[in-house]
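Minutes, structural biology subgroup

Action item carried over from last meeting: produce the structure token record for RNase H type-1 domain-containing protein (Eumeta variegata). EB confirmed the sequence was re-checked against the source entry. Recorded below for completeness.
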Amino acid sequence: MLYVSCAWVPATRKLGVRKMIDAVQRSVALKACRAYRTISLHSALFILILLSLDIRVKEAAWLHEVKREKDLGDTFVDQELAKPVYFSELPAHVPEIGFENVEELGSYTLDRLAVVGPHIYTDGSRIKGKVRAALTEWQDGEESCNSRSVLEVLTCSKTYHYLAHEARRDISEIVAESRAVRLFWVRAHAGIKGNERADELVRRADKTAADYDRFPLSYAKRVTRVASLEEWQEQYAEGSNGEIIKCFVLRVKQTYRVRQIDITSQLALTLTGHGGFSQYLFRFKLKDSLYCACNPTKI
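Output recorded by EB:
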């Protein structure tokens, strides 16, 4: 359904096209949620936690434009997409790189690891949606980083990240000169002066200009999904269908909690109100009264 969605996304604004898309998705959603055929499409999608196809088409088309680095208005101002390194640009021979976990860098540890040369401590943190990083060089040490995930990406030979590719290339050049590079993961706030100094410099990084402002595709997907959920919320709030399910959940973001629950047929009937209930049976003239038998004054 989403194939070449960027080409036919303008057609989703037409009412006739949206009706055809809704009919296709509704037939599948009804079988998946195991509810009565009389429920609305929005109720079925709400139970299954699925975006409507017209929103998904817009989302897929927008991501395609991001990959093409099209002008997206105020979404990503003066920023570029972080593209992966092409396979053809990877070197044929790459030295094997690994890292060790180090809790502290005392004299005993330095002697045991035979660490010689300069120490370069790095640190990074995510503050207010932005990542800040800093480094500090110390004598008689080795490069250490408190981000284990970064070291795992750096030491993986199959990574295609642009920054990891540059770092691995620099390490290869150093190794080619018969010099050694060793990486260590140091636990944060372990009392190591170099690491604490790097952490202090990170907090000052917000006062400097950004050195790297490219955004990954995962960030673009997250921004797109937030916009899609907002549009879904508007459709959900303004729609006249699914009044009973709105008694349980008011915002669509809360539906993600339902992922932890196994949606059974009985639960779907309860959430939609389309089942063996007095109000539902009275609606189709299958019962004389819409009130409950246990209390004739209440529905």
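Discussion: The CA atoms of residues 36 and 77 lie 47 Å apart.
Next step: EB to file the record with the rest of the batch.
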